[in-house]
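Figure S7 source data.
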Amino acid sequence: MDHFALVDGELFAERVPLARIAEEVGTPVYVYSRATLERHADVFREGLAGVERKHLAFAVKSNPNLAVLKVLAGRGYGADVVSAGELDRALAAGIAAHDIVFSGVGKTETEMRHALAKGIGQFNIESEEEGRMLAAVAAAMGLTAQATLRINPDVDAGTHAKISTGKADNKFGVGLHVGPGIYQRLSQLPGISLRGVAVHIGSQLLSLDPLEAAFGKIGELVAHLREQGHTITHVDLGGGLGVPYQAATEPPSPADYGALVARVTRDWDAVIQFEPGRVIAGNAGVLLTRVIRIKPGIRDPFVVVDAAMNDLARPALYDAWHDFEAVRPNGTRMTANIVGPVCESGDTFAMGRDIDTVSDGDLAIFRTAGAYGATMASSYNSRGIVAEVLVDGDRYAVVANRISPAEIMAAETVPDWL
Ligand code: LLP
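Tokens for the predicted LLP complex:
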């Protein structure tokens, strides 16, 4: 459920007409709904009611906007971060350092030192080499880093290849067969305190089966590690729950997911950690755009909008589907190709799509753009960086200014020897 709906024939975000935002802020612009973010945060937590001891860390990579993070902090969420930049954002949004988990295969020494100095709650270590580096960095600071070892369970998440992370040939985590040995060796080191394991097999999962398979393997590993004398207090189950980009897609609900987790982890006797991203932020945002012009095509017309692949990269990268709707639909439909102005054919949002009829100058939205939208924007074709707005009831605020092409150019220097 979200709060982007027609009121008297016109799309609103909560109680603010999208046309007003377009008028005052310009397009393209991401629009987030606070009520939707909060609802999703609460529904996800309620789904996990059967999991006694838990920790929820919002995956900052899905939407790192400070205002969005502040909303989620207000709902009791910690953060899952993958860089010093994300860590600083989470802290700036008021998330306590001990509620932050640091994931990712390429943490640098500098990032480790920074995170330790801030008092971060946990590192999810992705290799023995990384664990050794972390132990050395922490020991040199006179600290002990709390950590889990990320396991690659070799399970096919059944999602797009580029967002699958749990197959043996993916770069993430360590294999199940080598996990216990690495765990044993790392736990001997000063500077690091291993307290459990982590797993994340992919994103936009539309079935619970691969999760059940992965969690089953993790449960067996936890038992095995305990038999070896290790104390396991935390298990991080990552994120990954899919969202309905199309009405016909029915991802498992947070309640179904929560029931699975409660059943599988019943005897684990550990704090179960979660890193949801898309399921919280996806449907809480839309990309508002204006039709520049309609250009005839061989079969269907091209609707050229002022948003492009540099603003919303998902269709170009993952052939992703985002529903397209007119802000003031006139009740008729057309079949069209929806494209942006960027000079490559990959800048295509949809081909031969049945959409609301739109004309030059009309406003429209791409739905389900709140996760992995603005954060993946670039300035390709020197188009500037898209603005972001947060709506709250009948008010809104610009929560990220548009960065103009001139501002980006100002960061460049031509050496005086040219
Ligand atoms: N935890 C870890 C360790 C992750 O790698 C990810 C996502 C998450 C949590 C959050 O997953 P979520 O709940 O959002 O599925 N740019 C791609 C998605 C990349 C996801 C990367 N990792 C897209 O636009 O579909």
